[in-house]
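Protocol step 4 of 6.
Sequence for Methionine aminopeptidase (Riesia pediculicola) entered exactly as in the expression construct, tag removed. Do not edit the line below.
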Amino acid sequence: MINLIKTKEEIQKMRIVGRISAKVLEFIEPYILPGISTGEIDRICHDYITKEMKAIPACLNYHGFPKSICTSVNDVICHGVPSEKEILKEKDIINIDVAVFKDGFYGDTSKMFFVGKPEVNSKNLCKIAQLSLYIAIKIIKPGLSLRSIGKTIQNFVRKHQFSIVREYCGHGIGRSFHEDPPILHYDAEDKGIKLQPGMIFTIEPMINYGSEESKIMEDGWTVKTVDKSLSAQYEHTILVTKSGYEILTLRKEESFF
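Step 5 output, structure tokens:
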């Protein structure tokens, strides 16, 4: 794992790209209203990333992905493709996943947004998904076993009777968009990996209201719940420090960290 430890210079560049990623989510929030298309949301984010932040949308053309961000609405788990035909309506929930590339490094983050006033079940699902990320982040420190992250998320989510998607996971990140190690969101074998200062990775649990099972749609990207139940996801890029952790994609609304 030593080759995945970032230098001080690399960490500083990751701080910059992480902050840019967070700023995109802060910037787009006022636009998330009934009547806007996910295609328009994509254009707004693209312009902000490229013109204001002078960065590159990492999702655009990544393995052929056609847009600059992912927009996953209601029963879409992840990798939703923005479209002019997809119009947000009152009570929808949407995950916006932003990844940017600048000066040789990648940043990656996502959060849920409510369109208008949310249903009680939608609000509760999103709350548990966000808290599952937070409680996992708070245990991060050198020497922690990698599987402890997934085990912590699993125990919390099961207690609230939701399910965890297993086909998709967090990942190391830095000079490459996706690096080792994979960060599973459930208790699983981790080959004895222990966290070390200088490691940077994403934690991004995908939590379903119903079944954990998923399916990929005909576009080859969009992942939905099999039973059409709601899904929610929050994601941060995390640095392991000498004493604990640093959230590189922290938003202003999360100043309590």
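Step 6, annotate. The helical segments are 8-28, 38-52, 120-137, 147-159.
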